Automatic annotation (TrEMBL):
Domain EAL, residue spans: 328-582
One Pfam family named in its UniProt record: EAL
Domain of life from the UniProt record: Bacteria
Coiled-coil segments: none
Protein name: Diguanylate phosphodiesterase
An annotated Gene Ontology molecular function: cyclic-guanylate-specific phosphodiesterase activity
Gene3D superfamilies, A to Z: 3.30.450.40, 3.30.70.270, EAL domain
Domain (GGDEF): residue spans on this chain: 187-319
CDD domains, alphabetized: EAL
Family matches, as InterPro entries: Cyclic-di-GMP_PDE-like (IPR050706), EAL_dom (IPR001633), EAL_sf (IPR035919), GAF (IPR003018), GAF-like_dom_sf (IPR029016), GGDEF_dom (IPR000160), Nucleotide_cyclase (IPR029787), Rev_trsase/Diguanyl_cyclase (IPR043128)
């Protein structure tokens, strides 16, 4: 054997990355056709490795490999010539070969030859009985071998290998997962994804270092994985900075998790990754019989996102978190329909009590959603989802329109009430926000001084000079501004002095904490004094007891809002509630 030629042949075989890959229907189909054409029980696509014959595809064979010693396919690979053994018992060389001793009597094989002339192995048929084979049969076997090689080259070169890393890509992973579903048994299996960098880190690196640097990192990591992982673990390059790792079917969580934790630490040393990236690893189980390949990939992405939020950087896929994210996505998808469907969205109103006059002078409009299938959805759940999407402006527009409509109806009933309406900071960047608001106020005959817009402290603090201009314009037209959730953000007193705000709403968490002790009460008292000294009217949210209401009044708080006064209610109930409250106050005055 020419040593240099053999090394070149083995190198060609390795470069095709086909050894020890999963069974594939595209190869099995050819093998079945060959077996049926010859009418023989055994057929195989056999690849010649250093010391073994490994079967990429097989019919009638239980094991995955046999020794290379005196294997006919090894001769076919070396000579690149067809080989027919009509009867092993009459062949001086192969009579005592492992196949001959196992009872095989007939062999016919044709070489699998690469475009550069290297023999990878053979497409072969075998039987336990001797046979004669004609030219027609060998021609068909040769043609089928060419089809095997075309399949090998197609999987390697056409859309299945990432050029930068040289690893199989996402499409190959999907194909392999489909093959596992067909051939992989019923036991659950593990799969992992290594994510080198967060999206923001990736974008910054691409901008600062350029794509060539990222290519260097990818190649280094790909080589590291090939050198580090055991031969049973397959690697795939499935995203710009993501690698999927598919261990053998025998892998367990107990054995794999420490290995992944070690890998996470080691990969950070490659190409100076620790200075620029934060790798993470997500793991997920999947059932080959019931899990679709696309669902496996989706679970992988969920797992690696959870890993980014974990302390260790390694996390398993969670069904509970996945259900939460899928529910969030559904809410996001269904919200545009809710905006157009009567009775899905509605407003409720929670009164605010003036501690100075004892009167309800304002109420906050709160959005509620009754989903046709999910039922009542808490605003704490759906509002943050919508606020993080491009639907936030449509939500604010719906709330403003319906709040003004209800306020107009209340005023026609003789109810003198102001409404506080929550809007998003994104509304402050709408070029026509003020113009559209004034049109709505005119349409519903509501004076600007009867509405108040609430924005969270964090949202207000993050806005631009352009937003400030809009806030001042709103103030000039008589619209009041309230800073909601005060104390939970990152207030800058110097910046707050620039805001044309009228009201500060102390977050309910601080009010609830007052029951814990003197330090908490001192904090709330200080917030009230600070806000009033800056000229703000102070509203305390989340007041649920008479004790809290009395304490806040003693601290100088202007208004309170919470369950102690009233739960949020529909507009018709609000009208009745206000009427009963006025009647009760009038009766007390008459008695006095």
């Amino acid at each position: 054997m020419d040593r240099d030629l053999e090394l070149a042949r083995l190198s060609s075989l390795r470069n095709l990355k086909i050894l020890d890959t999963l069974p594939s229907e595209s190869f099995d189909r050819i093998t079945r056709i060959v077996s049926q054409f010859f009418g023989l029980p055994v057929a195989a696509v056999s690849l010649t490795d250093v010391d073994r014959q490994w079967f990429k595809s097989k019919v009638g064979i239980e094991h995955n490999q046999i020794p290379r010693f005196k294997a006919p396919c090894a001769e076919v690979a070396q000579t690149c010539q067809p080989l027919v053994i009509n009867d092993f018992q009459k062949d001086d060389y192969y009579i005592d070969s492992p196949l001959g001793q196992s009872g095989v009597r007939f062999y016919a094989g044709v070489p699998l030859i690469t475009p550069d002339g290297h023999g990878l192995g053979a497409l072969c048929v075998l039987d336990t009985k001797p046979h004669a084979v004609g030219e027609r049969e060998m021609t068909v076997l040769t043609d089928m071998a060419a089809m095997v090689m075309a399949q090998i080259e197609m999987q390697h070169a056409v859309g299945r290998i990432e050029a930068v890393s040289g690893l199989p890509n996402r499409f190959q992973l999907l194909s392999d997962l489909a093959d596992i579903c067909k051939h992989g048994g019923k036991e659950p299996r593990l799969i992992c994804v290594l994510d080198l960098a967060q999206t923001l880190q990736f974008d910054r690196l691409a901008r600062v270092m350029g794509p060539s640097h990222l290519d260097t990192v990818i190649r280094a990591v790909a080589q590291f994985l090939q050198n580090t992982l055991d031969q049973q673990t397959l690697s795939y390059h499935v995203g710009p900075m993501q690698f999927a790792l598919l261990p053998s079917a025998m892998a367990t969580a107990e054995g794999l998790l420490p290995a992944m934790q070690q890998l996470l630490g080691d990969v950070g040393k490659v190409a100076d990754l620790r200075m620029t990236m934060t790798p993470s690893i997500g793991l997920t189980w999947f059932n080959p019989q019931t899990t679709k390949p696309e669902d496996v990939l989706r679970s992988m992405q969920g797992a690696v996102q959870d890993a980014r939020n974990s302390e260790t950087g390694v996390a398993f896929f969670s069904d509970d978190r996945d259900l939460m994210h899928r529910r969030n996505f559904r809410l996001l998808q269904d919200f545009p329909r809710a905006l157009q469907t009567p009775d899905e969205l509605h407003l409720v109103f929670q009164p605010r009590l003036s501690l100075e006059t004892g009167k309800v002078e304002c109420a906050e409009a709160l959005l509620r959603w009754t989903h046709p299938e999910l039922g009542s959805v808490s605003p704490a759940e759906f509002v943050p989802i919508i606020e993080a999407s491009n639907q936030v402006r449509a939500m604010s527009a719906w709330v403003i329109d319906n709040a003004l409509k209800h306020l107009s109806a209340l005023q026609e009933e003789g109810v003198d009430l102001k409404l506080s309406i929550n809007i998003s900071a994104l509304n402050l960047n709408e070029p026509e926000f003020l113009e559209l608001l004034l049109e709505k106020l005119e349409l519903y005959a509501v004076r600007p001084g009867h509405i108040e817009f609430e924005l969270t402290e964090t949202a207000v603090m993050s806005e631009t000079e352009k937003s400030l201009d809009l806030l001042h314009a709103l103030r000039d037209h008589g619209v009041r501004l309230a800073i909601d959730d005060f104390g939970t953000g990152y207030s800058s007193l110097a910046y707050m002095q620039k805001l044309p705000a009228d009201v500060v709403k102390i977050d309910r968490s601080f009010v609830a904490d007052m029951a814990n002790g003197n330090r908490e009460r001192v904090l709330v008292h200080s917030m009230i004094n600070l806000s009033r000294s800056l000229g703000y009217r102070v509203v305390a949210e989340g007041v649920e007891t008479l004790e809290a209401a009395d304490l806040l009044q003693a601290m100088g708080c202007d208004e309170i809002q919470g369950f102690w006064l009233s739960r949020p209610m529909a507009v018709d109930l609000l009208s009745d509630w206000l009427q009963r409250r006025r009647n009760g106050a009038q009766q007390q005055e008459d008695v006095a």
